[in-house]
Amino acid sequence: MGRPRKALLDRRRIGRTALELVDETGDFTVPEVARRLGVQTASVYHHVDGRAGVIELLREQVVDELDAGTLDERPWDVALEAWARSYRAAFAAHPRSISMLMTSPVRAPRVIDQYERVAGLLLDAGFAPEAVMPIITGLDNIVLGSALDMSAPEVMWVVGGEAEAPRLAAAQAATGPARADQAFDLTLAGFLDHCRGLLVRDRTAAATDGREAGGPRS
């Protein structure tokens, strides 16, 4: 038998096609994915569990563009900053996917694995367990908000006509063309500084608890 003219349907092709549709229109439907792939809708459902399953394949496509190797760097704050910058670049390439992915629970194993590594990085550094998810969520908010900002118009505040705001206009003019990058750098630096303060607090609390648990020495 000759080779088929089209590659066999697989999960990666489904995810890639859904991401292409979202990049183009901001959304997708499973029938649209099937039409673009040249297959029946039922064939797509054979590989995924409905729309939610396609969203997770789409999520994997975006996250595969991250450099997970940054999480091997040390110390923890160097690794976290490098990962955040790679994370931002990956989502800045697909800004229309952000609202969809932010409102859908994360289930994709390859994505969960990266967050597991981030959690391990923070716990190994000495952060208290109850601090880990707020840090991860806060970093998500910074990165994804900035990725959206990168797709926004460079001039976001249109001053003139009935809107008299000379100081805002002067500040905007002085900023130059890298407003989104400067804002991200500022916010990420402040976030990491705050996390370093949390780590000092958590380490101090752990040391105090350890001394109290040991009791007085005779």
Present the secondary structure layout.
Layout: H1 11-25, H2 30-37, H3 41-47, H4 50-63, H5 76-92, H6 98-102, H7 109-125, H8 129-150, H9 166-175, H10 179-214
Helix pairs in contact: 1-2, 1-4, 2-3, 5-8, 7-8, 8-10
Q: How would you sum up this structure, described in words?
A:
The protein has 218 residues and is mainly α. It folds into two domains: 9-64, Homeodomain-like (Arc Repressor Mutant, subunit A, Orthogonal Bundle), CATH 1.10.10.60; 70-201, Orthogonal Bundle (Tetracycline Repressor, domain 2). It contains ten helices and no strands. The protein has helices at residues 11-25, 30-37, 41-47, 50-63, 76-92, 98-102, 109-125, 129-150, 166-175, 179-214. It is flat. The mean pLDDT is 93. GO terms for molecular function: DNA-binding transcription factor activity; transcription cis-regulatory region binding.
Give the biggest sheet.
none
Q: Rg to the nearest angstrom?
A: 23 Å
Query: What is the residue-averaged pLDDT?
Result: 93
User: According to CATH, what is the topology of the largest domain?
Assistant: Tetracycline Repressor, domain 2
The number of domains: 2
State the name of the first-level CATH class of the largest domain: Mainly Alpha
Number of helices: 10
Q: Regions with pLDDT < 50 over 5+ consecutive residues?
A: none
Give the overall shape, derived from the CA principal axes: flat
Distance between the termini: 85 Å
Instruction: Give the amount of beta strand, in percent.
Output: under 5%
Q: Regarding quaternary structure, how should these chains be classified?
A: single chain
Helical residue percent? Answer: 55-70%
Number of strands: 0
Element pattern in H and E: HHHHHHHHHH
Structural classification: mainly alpha
CATH superfamily of the largest domain: Tetracycline Repressor, domain 2
